Amino acid sequence: MEDRLTTYRGVRIDDTTEWKLVVYISDKGMSAYLKNIENPLEPVVTLFEDKWVREESGLLHRIETAIYDHPQLLDDFSTQIAMCSPRTQLIPEKVAQDSEDISRLYNMIYKADEDDIFVDQFDGIVCAYTLSPGLQSFLRRTLSGARVVSHMGVEIRRFMQRGADMPRLYVDVRENEADFILIDDRKLLLGATHEWHVKEDLVYHVLNIIDVYGLDAANTQVSISGLREIKTELMKMLRERVGYAMLTMMPSAVSKLDMPLGAALAMRL
Known about the structure:
The protein is α/β, with parallel strands linked by helices.
């Protein structure tokens, strides 16, 4: 009898349909995780984590190499790819009727060929983003059955589901950049990624967003996630400036595996 049992870093798999594969790709690295969809109590497994220095040139080659170096990604899993791109643009669906509209609007801010623009659509929002020229065609060839989603898009979808009686600014901090998502009464006001170098930069971005949108700092909730060594101290700094600053409730895999927020939320789609 043929033995189809396969071992992935301590996890034995004999039926790939029972597992979801989530691949997280950014311009600073790539990682992959497995989640048992038949047994939710089974812990999430980290397949690999590769990191590299951010450089525009050579990014596609690094991603290609990471996939070919980990051929288990090519197995017959249900696969989600969470793409973390600082070049993400949110467009109202009513003004983006087709791919030409999306490309035209996207290129008003960023530069990319139409074939290199990934698109998510949800709740009347078009989320357009790119990471590297040629990446979309490569993923179609190698991971043809995978669903690609924006890290910003999955964060927005999750946070819009949470009700609150005041505006909420979600801040997810990564190395040298952070996402800022502003929601008021389940309505998206802002989704943007900004660079930072010292914690005071993050405080500035938070206070600037509150000011630009005419919010009352005393009645605005700032919810923080991301780098462990930053978020707690940032929360303490913000409590001197805003009425409510707290840590965001995260999926357990984020704290247990230090999984990127976008990957953990994509796992739930």
